[in-house]
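Worked Example 4.2. Read the sequence first, then its structure tokens.
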Amino acid sequence: MKAGPLPRVHAVTDERIARRDDLVIVANALVAAAGDAIALHARGRALSGREHLALALCLPGRRFVNDRLDVALAAGAEGVQLGSGSMSVAAARALGPDWWIGRSVHTLTEAQAALAEAADYLVVGPVFATATHPGREPLGLPLFARIAELGVPAIAIGGVTPARAAELRGVGAYGVAAIRALWDVAEPGPALRELLEVFL
């Protein structure tokens, strides 16, 4: 049985954030601001397994791990997010029957495939232009809306801001995921609450 409802906001790390001196301070501020409504994602494609595990273990609150299911098992993660090159949802569920299992998707076809796999949620993006993926064409709101209509909780990522969160909620977003909008702001707690208010 899953520990609780799928969080509405997902704070995603990367290699840069994983190595910041204030990582735990910011992570604690985010959890203090949102409690169970936020998931903290241990993500870092260039991290070694040891580094990825250390990152996951230092994150407070509801802990999700991207791609590395061995790390998710070792860290006692509540959820995993699978990239397009990751193992199948069924294989992940065999390892962690109680995990929230999400799939990152970038097209309607990928979203339909994830639906067929019975993913619990989708991380869809980039919806807007983002510095994280400067060369990738954003999906835009109309395509995001079509994916959200599939009926699986759709988490929007890419260029997310509090102002855009209301637009995303209006086209069916269950919630949002962000890197810079949560980790790189002067006051992460208030920034998070501003995002969260849209979905509560």
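Now turn to a second chain, presented in exactly the same format:
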Amino acid sequence: MKPTVVIMAAGMASRYGSLKQIQRFGPSGETIMDYSIYDAYQAGFGKVVFIIREEFADDFKAIFEPKLKDKIAIEYVFQDLRSFVEGFAIPEARTKPWGTAHAVLCASTVVKEPFIVINADDFYGRDAFEKAYQFLMQEANDQTFGLIGYELVKTLSDNGSVSRGVCKVDATGNLVEIAERTKIYRDGDSIVYEDGDKKIKVPTDSKVSMNFWCFTPFVFNICKTMFDEFLQKNIGQPKAEIFVVDVAAEFIKDPQNALKVVPTASNWFGVTYKEDAPGVESNINSLVANGDYPQSLW
């Protein structure tokens, strides 16, 4: 059974200011998602699942159906505020989605095989998908999940600070904890994050999470349990969210479980800010010029 690619594309892109998920960057009008799907398809994945808002559906189908329908299976699931909230009244003030763990839970209706979860607006690189495919086919099970780990220095933006999950890894390569660090940026020759009025250095070779997860469908059980508990505690908080990293943290509380941090040599780039867009386009053009990707993917 071929594994599946689940792409989270339902976010509001508040910092970016537009629907960056379908912005075209490649020389033939490719989105960042096109490159992720292409790399996954080349690595051996058999299906792509887009997690989107229902109002995005026509745009996504118009972009992806013509070029993908004969190559890889396609599914769409909608991250709706009402999904999996039976028995709870949604406050009028709640407008944003419930978070990435809820997004993954929404995919449970169509995903029955091992799968990866990625962001729509991150360029992850071919090596990451090849490593993820190998992990899913050879190591993943209901007690062993995975995370593709990037070198921190390869994940920064030149246009502002970023938030990253900095991984603490044991001697066997398993995740011990993820520390969410906000406002990470270059400061001279160092990389720092801000904690109040303090600047704290982070080793440049630290492994960080870019939300590239490797799961079996068992993860949906954890997501559902945690989402129910989240609603009981936070239904009245209009901006509260539950994240995949919270699910990962819960998973590794059980000493019989392991979440392997799979290192990749890939360089990450993405569009956190509008100012990042020219750099993304330039990076993709360079990869095409070097022969890493064809002029037209599909």
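Notes for the reader: The first helix runs from residue 32 to 43. The chain has one domain: 4-149+209-289.
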